[in-house]
Amino acid sequence: MDFDWQHMLIELLVMPTLAFVVGLVMVLMARRLRARIERRVGPPFWQPLWDILKLYSKRTQVSHGHMHEISIIVLLGGMIAMEVFLPVPGFDTFAHHGDALTLIYLMMVPTLGMALGVSACANPNGSIGIARALTAMLAYDVPFIITVAGAAMLYGTTSLPEIIAIQQQQGLEGWGAVQMPLLALAALISMQAMLGKEPFEIYVAPAEIATGPMTEMSGKFLGSMFIMQCFQLYTVSVLYTTLFLGGGENWATFLIKIFVVVAIPMTLTNIFPRYKTEAVVAWLWKWPTAIALVGLFVVMMR
Amino acid sequence: MNPEILIALPLLAAFLLPAARRIDASVGIWWGPLVVLANLVIAAMAWWKVQLIGPQSIALGGFAAPLGIELRADHLGLSAAVLLNLAVLLLWPRETPDKARVSTILLVLTGAGCGLAMSADLFNLYVFFELVAVATYGLAAANGKGEALIASLRYLILGALGSALALLGIALVYAKTGTLNLTELGGMSEALSGPAGIGALVLMVVGFGVKAELFPLNNWVPEVYAHTESRVSALMAGIISKLGILVLLRLIAEVFGGSPGLEFLLWVGVLGVVTGELAAYGAKDMRRVLAYSSIGQMGLVAVALALGGETGFIAALILMLNHLLVKPALFLIADAWPGSLKALAGKGRARPLGAVLFVLLALSLIGVPPLPGFWGKYLLLDAIFTNVTEGAGLLVGLILAATVVEAAYFFRIAARLFGSGEAAEESKIPGLPAVAALFVIAFLALSVQTGRVGDYLKEVVHGLQPQELRMAQSDFPDPAASVNGKGERL
Amino acid sequence: MRQFASLLFLFGFAFFLSVLVGGLPFGAAPMQVGQAIVEQNIEATGAANAVTGVLLAFRGMDTLGELTILFVAATAAGMVVERRKHGVSRDSVAGFILLAGAELMFPFLLILGAYVILHGHLTPGGGFQGGAILAAAFFVPFLANPGRAFQGHAMAFVEAFAGATFILLGIFSIFREGDFMAPMFLGTGEFGQLVSAGSLPLLYLALGLKVGAELGSLVAEIAAAPGSDDPLIEEPQAAKDL
Amino acid sequence: MNELLSIGNLLYGGAAGLIVIGLFAVVARRHLIRVLLGVAVIEAGVNLMLVAAGFRPGAAAPIFDPQAISGPMVDPIPQALVLTAIVIGVAVLALGLTLAIRIHRQYGTLDTVALTRIVNAPAGSPESRAMMQRGGGGHES
Amino acid sequence: MIPSLDLLLALAFGNLGLMLLAGRNPTAGLLSMILYALQGWVLVMLMPALAEGAASGLAFQVFGWSLSWELNGLGWFFAIITVGAAFFSAWFAAGAWGVQGTRSPWAFHVTLAANVAAMLLLLASRDLLTLFIGWELVTWAGYAMMIQSGGPATRAAYKYLIYGVAGGLAVLAAVVLIQVQAGGLGFAAVAAWMPGISTGMLWALMLLLGVGFGIKMAFLPFHRWQAEAYGESPGPAAAFLGAISSRMGLFGLLILLVHFIGLARLDELLLPLIGLDARILWMWLSALTIIIPTFIALKQNDARMLLAWHGIGQGGYMLLGVLVGSELGVAGGLLHVFNYATYQAVLFLVMGAVVYRTGTAHLDRLGGLITRMPLSYVAMLFAIIGLAGLPPMNGFVSKWMVYKALLDEGLPLLFVAAVIGTLGTILSVFKLIHNVFLGQLRVEHEQIREVPFSMWGPMIALSLIVFITGYMPGLALDLVMVAQTSLGFAALDYHLGGFVTDTGNLNMLAVVSVLLLGMGIGAGIFLLGGNKSKRVHQLDNYAGGHFLTTEVRYHYSHHFYAGLLRLIGPWYITLIKRLEGGIAALTDTLAAGSDGLYRTAYTPILMLAATVLGLALVL
To answer: What's the pTM?
Structure first.
């Protein structure tokens, strides 16, 4: 493995900022979409950025001990590390060092960091929220893992750049969504839960547990949470496009794809009420898992 | 010193004891042990002579084998005699009210035991066996307690019935072959292969089985061992049950080699192991546990005998030797914890060394590797797999399941010993009876020297099949064949 | 249920017994060893009665074992029987004729017993049968009058020395003939007379006395035991001197 | 018919019958004295069989009589063995009966079932002591 | 002092003797630590000599069988872990814990030394007989270690003993069967003889040896005993037992499945009716062993029980990896043995420390200890990330290898089953660290202080090992390759950071360094970007306008994951538990029956019956 340092360093700085910017635009799009559905104008273009800057400039914010602060750092660090490993047109030297499995596990590092931070501030609402978040994670990860297994079986490799290369080389019908529609659908549903969007949004339920994990977060802590949300939107969409939509040949098509991918859960989130925790688990383990298993079976048969 | 002195001397002393006791009352105390000690010395010298010049055959009364009675002074006989004398000397009962009479009985027991070990004549074996039996009835009733008397009487009835059946067996053998000498009988296998011969074997197994604690015949064991003095039950469990097995060993090794009658002994042995261990698991007080466990061990020995073959006999001998050293020590150690098992909580701390040794000896009975018990069990399984064609799996399964039950009840006791509970007195003195220590030392020596003892046992087994009279039964696995057939084993 | 089981097994046993016995050649006893003994008996043992020859010469050890069994049984019985407290006498129940008759029978029984023992090697009978008759000599008066005190001391000494002579003769024969219990002094007397068959009559005499004395001492034990309705003796029977 | 009643079958049959009768007593009866007697009967049967084993038709008793004609002789060994066996039987029986007397005096009963309950009662349990008091004659325990 | 197997065994038994004599005085712990370190050094020096096998001088002749010992690669690999685990638990017990933490430090040191000695004997066995002898010694040494603390541990140890003895006897039966059929017992002779035997015999042997070794490894049907047995033992004892003791079962299974039968033969061995071949059967058994115990662990509310149940679960990964058969899979399985030993030891040591300070390990009675025991918290954090298998730590590497091997060999369903196991682990480890260290600090734990150096030293050292072997897995893989080659597989081409395979590669150096750099950037943004934040007391919390006081228990730990447990509650079928109870009841009734048989008054009937039946049987 030849480490050409300077290329690495550039990627390390550029990719996260790129991810942050795209993430901000995605958050804006989400809020605009919700506004359109509720027949109102929606926030101006730079609103998400201002929110974060406002939170960061707050004077009084409450910290519950070192672990609270360290966990936020772990959160941000985990997110940044994830962005670096995502194969983006032009920059994918790091993507070669890790593969789909590594990425899935890297996604869990920030979640665990946040969980530790929230528990450190010893607020039962936070703990209950985290318990629900982890239960939801257990729920949506089962179908997601099956789709990843299916993809690995189909492409024969788990290295993301190669997956993109395989899909692009066969053109449109080479795409994952075309090759394995069922797995793509199951992945879409589990992505919905991964982003914590409406039907599966139990762990931030404001009414019952005071927005769950975010209860004790104030000022820059809450700001970091917002940053995490941007990164999360970007990461999930890029991963989905890589696996199922043939990744980005060039930036233009790549951006269109990831915005379309994000648009789907954003629209769905506005029309659903909220599931109870065990209902989330029961539902996700029933339908999407069934679809994914059938998809996997189909892939295995080929 | 020719070996028949071993028989004559104790009997002579026994005859003179009642008269001597009238002259000087204290005779009852030292007379018996002194004579047994002398007898031990003679036996050791005779044993050493056999080591040097090999087994001898002594014609009693000057009459050659088939006519007169033949005593076979071979490894098996003399080592059994030495062990018997040693055990009687060490386990001399103390608490019996009537010392003089008990000494007489023990002297007779020693003399008869030596005779039994060496005799090679079927009827002579029966007479000495009956002598040992009557002596044991007397010993069982020695301490005069009510229950001991009942136990002794019930044992007497069983023993008498058994001896009648054994005599019936001998009558059948004599009617069929006309001779009583074991070596002669060995040569007449086709005469004995008929129904009469096999029936005689079954009857003799039942007759001699009473003493050897075989399965349906051993109801007396828990009763007698529970109500006699611990030293007496140690003596009976230790060496006297082995004498019963010795008779069967001689019979099977020299006469009934591969006869189908042995299948009866095999299943009696297996049932003995299974019911013995299960009953021990269900027993409530320590003495009964040890009694049932000795039934189980004797069952194992019976299975080993029934399988025959060189490995079978060596397995039987090791299991007997191991049980001979372990059981008396267990009885003596358990003497400190009378009463029901529930009362044992925490007693281990009262006699720490005793408790630790109890566990060590139990390990050998279960068959944990470095200890001799393991080699016995290993050879037994080896014999089963080689000799038993169909049903070997079932047999091994039953025996191993019984071993698990054995481990269960021994370590239930051990857990109670070391468990919490008001330890009576936290005395640091090891509290181990001297005699038990001797047995344990012998046991440790055996576990260290298993290799050398193993080779000696191989010689003993070779001595059992007199080479000059070829084994009549062809299907009796020829020792040489089974040896080199196993590659580098021997 | 028990009755049924025992009957069932009894019939089974009877059936098998008949199968076993049926197989035996009756009347055609193989006599492989028996014939040789019958031929060698006269010059080997000198005893007219071949059974005595077998008992004392060919299979001497059996007889020794058997003698000891009787001895052990008597000792064990002595140990088990309780001692009666002194002074608790038992009234005699027998009538005059029985008492007198018993007293009268005593010497005759002794003579008969002695005769049977001494002619053991000539006529059927011998040590055991004669000994039993001697013992009967002591039984009859006791049965007639259980209360009478019984002098056992002499009995014990006779018993001890008789047994000892039996074994000492055997050991002596090792030095003379080289084998335990080998017949000795075969030359003395001539065949068929009272003085013949060398050491066998001596052995039988010792044996007879031993058996007689033993059974006699057994009688003494029982005589000293409390009646079945006497009070239970609680203290352990420690000092058991006769 | 006469073949059936031949000496051999009669003797062996008789011995077997004795043994079976003795066994019945030992197995089916509960009173110890009866059991002991049963044992004695069995031993008698076995001894009879042992003697019968040595029988030869037309042979004389094994006594050498200078005057008598010297024909074939019966096998002396079984007779010697029987002599020994009888004495063994007597010895065991004597010991058994003495024990029985002592037990009867102590417990007042000779019923097997009751005695077994005493023997098998756990050590020092009230049951065994109760049996002691119930012993024969009104005597203090 | 040339390093040889004899020296190693001499040191091990010397240590045992020393502890027996000098176990009581306080320096005993230090002494044993030095001896374990020495043993470790000897093992490391032995590494080059392993190619032609480090034979040992001592040999016994018993009944014609020669007993001799020799250390091969696989045994050496397990030996390193054993000695390492012993070193750290001895270090933990050497200091303050030895004085107040346990009733008798002598018992701990003696049993630890005995265990190490027995395990070295087992690992150095050259033929089946020495293997069996070592096996029994390990079983009994484990029993001794479990009963040292008395109380509930003795009951758990008793159940362990019954399983252990039954397993040992199954192995004995198989050893004797081989001895009789094959004539010789040496590993090479048996391996050569194995291909020739009939499938029926092969099934019998696999069943017997599989059951025997499976019991020790707490494989699925025989897992009932391990949780209480390891959970109830005192801190460092549980650490040692948890880390390596049940892996002796894996050592046996590896010899059986790979060395004797060989994975190829396992493929041909078809189950009579289902048509499933034996290898898939074993793999599904190990997959179930991963899932079921992990979800049982989720339900536990005693921390040590939770960890012990995870011990059973993680065992499944190891065998699953090896059974895949590819170099990556075998290396993954073996590496997981090493990784698991490290973080499981830390977890048990931390719980030992928590019990030392607070006296309890019950998850409902702890909480908020991070403020009082920060170092223990850090150690546990590293360890749970390892146990959960998340990137920076070594657990991730071995799990990644197992998953990759499963995907490459085309076994997606097994892959999914394994990942479900990991997800369950993440949930339960979070519950562990949340209920013990995070959340509200209880009133009664206000005064407790961090454990002394002698106790947090080994914890931190081990957690550093967990991080370093995670960061540079190449170090651990060197050890694994020794074992892998001795098992007969080709060596994996790896570099310090990870692997390059044509179907996707892993470079932990890159992943972890990026993670660290990312955290640096995040720290920059977070610390420099915002202003100073005000530290607040734990009760100054938002509670929906409710005023918080100390009386109100304001810490959510009881019935953690309530929603999930309500859903999967009915799935907890206690089939095995009922089966076990049934067998125990059967034994009791049989025992009462046979005891009754011996108390019957009518003994002559039995004799008569025996004679008649005997005659019937024979004639």
So the answer is: 0.86
| Mean pLDDT, residues C42-69 | 84
Interval D58-69: pLDDT, tens: 777 777 777 766
* C-beta atoms of B179 and C61 within 8 A: no
pLDDT at position C94 over 80: no
Q: Are residues E348 and E409 in the same domain?
A: yes
- Residue numbers in D near B152 (CB within 8 A): 99
Question: How much is the pLDDT for B112?
Answer: 92
Q: How confident is the model at residue C84 (pLDDT cuts 50, 70, 90)?
A: low
Touching chains, B (3+ CB pairs < 8 A): C, D, E
Task: Mark whether E389 and E479 lie in a shared domain.
Answer: yes
D120/E604 Cβ within 8 A: no
Q: What is the pLDDT of residue E552?
A: 66
Task: Tell me which of B208-212, D23-27, E406-410, E501-505 is least confident.
Answer: E501-505
Structure tokens at E15: 């240590």
> Nearest CA to B368 among C176, C45, E139?
E139
Structural domain range at position E496: 277-523
Is C5 in Cβ contact with E619 (below 8 Å)?
no
**For chain B, what are the domain ranges?**
1-258, 261-466
Minimal-distance CA residue of chain C relative to D4:
C22
SS3 string, chain C, reads CHHHHHHHHHHHHHHHHHHHHHCCCCCCCCCHHHHHHHHHHHHHHCCCEHHHHHHHHHCHHHHHHHHHHHHHHHHHHHHHCCCCCCCCCCCCCCCHHHHHHHHHHHHHHHHHHHHHHHCCCCCCCCHHHHHHHHHHHHHHHHHHCCCCCCCCHHHHHHHHHHHHHHHHHHHHHHHHHCCCCCCCCCCCCCCCCCCCCCCHHHHHHHHHHHHHHHHHHHHHHHHHCCCCCCCCCCCCCCCCCC
* Fold of the CATH domain D7-63+70-133: Helix Hairpins (1.10.287)
Closest Cβ–Cβ partner in B146, B223, B227 for D107:
B146
Single-letter code of the amino acid located at C46: G
Query: E514 and E586 share a domain?
Result: no
Q: Do A67 and E438 touch (CB under 8 A)?
A: yes
Residues E512 and E368 in one domain: yes
Report chain A's mean pLDDT, rounded to a whole number: 85
pLDDT tens readout for residues C122-175: 888 888 889 999 888 888 887 777 766 666 677 888 888 888 998 888 888 888
Q: Domain spans of chain D?
A: 7-63+70-133
What pLDDT score was predicted for residue B431? 59
Q: The complex's ipTM?
A: 0.84
Q: Are residues E489 and E614 in the same domain?
A: no
Asked whether residue E483 falls in the same domain as residue E602, the answer is no
E523, E544, E564 - which closes a domain: E523
Query: Do E330 and E476 fall within a single domain?
Result: yes
Give the pLDDT score at E115. Answer: 92
Q: How many domains does chain E fold into?
A: 2
